[in-house]
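Z., the sequence and structure:
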Amino acid sequence: MNITRENIDELNAVVKVDIEKSDYSDKVEKILSDYRKTASVPGFRKGHVPMGMVKKQYGKAVLVDEVNKLLQDALNKYLTEEKLDVLGHPLPKPQDNLDWDAEQLSFEFELGLAPEFSVDLSPKKAITHYTIIADDKMINEQVESIQKQYGKLVSQEEVSKDSEVTGVYSNEEKGIENRVTLTLDKFKGKATEKKFIGAKVGDVITLKTKGLYSDDHELMHALKVSHDEVHDLDIEVSFTISEINNRELADLDQDLFDKLFGKDVVKSVTDLKEKIKEDAEKQFKQQADQKLLNDVTEYLVDSTKFELPAEFLQKWIQTSGEQPLDEVQAKEEYEKSEKGLRYQLIEGKLVGDNNIQVTMEDVTGHTKEMIKAQMAQFGQMNPSEEELDGIASRVLTNQEEVRRISEQIISQKLLSFYKENVKLKEKEVTYENFVKEVYGDK
């Protein structure tokens, strides 16, 4: 067997594999001999079928199979030994008239090679790293929300500003008939709120859907219509009131604290607010870290310039999926995935150049922390190490789960690397201002 490579350019190469008959003939003969021992052919006893008949029936298929195995093994070994960083997989060049009986078989494969590039971790304009705090306004709103959630409903004769109103939205033409409980602060305009104030059980209020809620998704759930249908929906609906209640706020006492957090974990309103702040800021940190990861990723993709073997990759995309694609479909798919591929290459270079590794110890530790968090949600606060080890062992028998967890750990390690090595600007904001600044004032 002989393997040679011709570099077409920096991103494309062709590998030629020459296979001699002697490379596979003994293996083919042995397989056919084994077939002969077990073959059932009418008119012949088992094990006594003529070898010529066995070769005629199975020879070509066995030959092709063995050659393909040889090719695959040889290519993998060659790519490893030559330390070639290839994209996708080698693509066999078509051969219309291959003579399988020849003394030598030659096969050619196209390769797409990963580009050489450098990564600049010093943007001209520092990337913002947010620290999101829970301010007094947010904490007080959360306290009130808890009091409402655990408070009791008191029936009212008529609707007031703070009422919870239950009723049915209906529109006969559109087939809308949906029972909901709502609060007046959900409506977009004050005019709608005024229609409800003073209304009683049995009253029917006529409303226009256009501009009824600030968010179309609120309207979608209120009317129980589809996502596509709710956009630009401009009809008249009636709301028939069936219940009017006011929710009395629950007392901020030890019974409520114990119900929320377990016995004596929180002992005062001050403790409660500190706990709310602590829990909220843990979640905010995750959001801020994800924002930083997204921003660094975008910067790296935009600022790291290199060419890709686009033509090769489009050919590879045509045949790599479950269903083959035509040239137009493959080009569209390539254009959609190009940015992600670029980041994969950048990430791979950063991981390799900076020796960022995931060990089995990392995977096991991360898995146990995930299990502890899940168990805590069901009130199991102190599982034993033996119990955690047992569950983690079962989880990690699933190789797909190991891969997913490893990707999470790499992402965490890259985030830490970015925090230490990328030019950042620290900014402390409230959650409300974070949402306004990042997502717009919605």
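The longest helix spans residues 269-303. The chain has a mean pLDDT of 92.

Let me know what you think.
H.
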